[in-house]
Specification:
335 residues, alpha/beta, Rossmann fold, 13-stranded mixed beta sheet, globular
Length: 335
């Protein structure tokens, strides 16, 4: 797997370098959306908390009085190619199978925000504008240079060695860099030194609590400390999920990790249910991203409650102050 990732990384970095060069030379032209675009992305393969950051920004913009919309490709969703409107800020029109799991999670968490799906992100921005939204949060947009953006926020971690989508030189396109806490300090300092004018802020993942599957009420982590659990997830880096559960004090009797964006066919569910029947845990625990696909199956796991880990990002206040200051003047005038 490491060899395959290394080969893919070389190919991806080569393609991104060529594509960026074509745009810089004016051979290809980026398109301006009809409303401000704040892009979230990374230069690594795999997850780096892009969706939690999108949710933090949507919450921030809502609190400022804006009407934000999430624009996402909708990876592995039925609408990925042709596009679709998951939410117009009033009604959710599709399912997680239509939009992909992460956009659907955002739509459920922020019913007043728009969520627009499709590979053509410019078309999604135009749809958002036509429905009265005034700012877009572009999910996983750093490599989507076809669309101009007002702010490019890049998340990066030096903690785990991993393959890169783009080389570190791509950070010169970023407006803000969020560095995950931890990892070799020398690597962190090298990045800061290489881009002295790039605003860099530290971030970390925090646990907000737990909720029952299909319900919004959040319980304290203290309520589950010392309890035996069967844990499962289908995310890019499952070890992070299991580590967070152990930090919360749960005793993991069995753990199952599935591929990212796993759809949970019957065979996968049977594997989890069998472990719950044999081990008789006090809880079956999963992630928010996985939970949106399991609401219809919550009665299949036996007597143990199905519990969802709720996470967020710890971000410094100066980061949000800089975001507010960097907004276009037309938007700042509304605050």
């Amino acid at each position: 797997m490491r060899i395959l990732l290394a080969v893919y990384s070389l190919f991806s970095r080569f393609v991104c370098r060529i594509k960026s060069g074509l745009y810089r030379c004016g051979i290809l032209h980026a398109h301006r959306a009809p409303l401000p675009v704040v892009s979230i992305g990374n230069i690594r393969l795999g997850g780096t908390e892009k969706t939690p950051l999108a949710m933090e920004l949507i919450s921030f913009f809502l609190n400022l009085g804006f009407r934000p919309a999430l624009v996402s490709r909708g990876y592995k969703g039925r609408w990925e190619r042709e596009g679709g409107v998951l939410s117009d800020g009033k009604t959710i029109f599709g399912s997680w199978q239509d939009s992909g799991d992460e956009p659907y999670m955002v739509a459920r968490a922020f019913p007043q925000a728009g969520v627009f799906i499709g590979a053509d992100r410019l078309a999604s921005c135009q749809k958002a504008r036509s429905r009265g939204f005034d700012i877009v949060v572009l999910d996983d947009g750093f490599q989507h240079v076809r669309l101009q953006r007002d702010l490019d926020i890049v998340l990066h971690s030096v903690r785990e060695p991993t393959a890169l989508r783009e080389g570190l030189g791509a950070l010169q396109r970023a407006h803000f860099l969020l560095l995950k806490t931890g990892g070799p300090e020398a690597k962190r300092q090298r990045i800061r030194a290489a881009y002295p004018e790039l605003p860099v802020f530290d971030y970390s993942v925090s646990v907000k609590g737990f909720s029952s599957l299909g319900k919004d009420e959040i319980f304290s982590t203290a309520d589950w400390r010392g309890k035996k659990a069967v844990a499962f997830c289908g995310i890019a880096r499952p070890e992070r999920f299991f580590s967070l559960l152990e930090e919360c004090g749960l005793v993991i009797s069995a753990r199952f990790s599935f591929p990212d964006h796993h759809a949970y066919p019957r065979r996968s569910l049977e594997k989890i249910v069998r472990a719950a029947e044999e081990l008789r845990p006090e809880a079956v625990v999963t992630t928010e991203k996985d939970a949106v696909k399991l609401t219809a199956h919550r009665d299949q796991f036996g007597p143990a409650p199905v519990v969802v880990l709720k996470i967020g990002l710890e971000l410094p206040e100066p980061f949000f102050e800089r975001i507010r200051a960097a907004l276009p003047k037309t938007l700042r005038a509304q605050i």
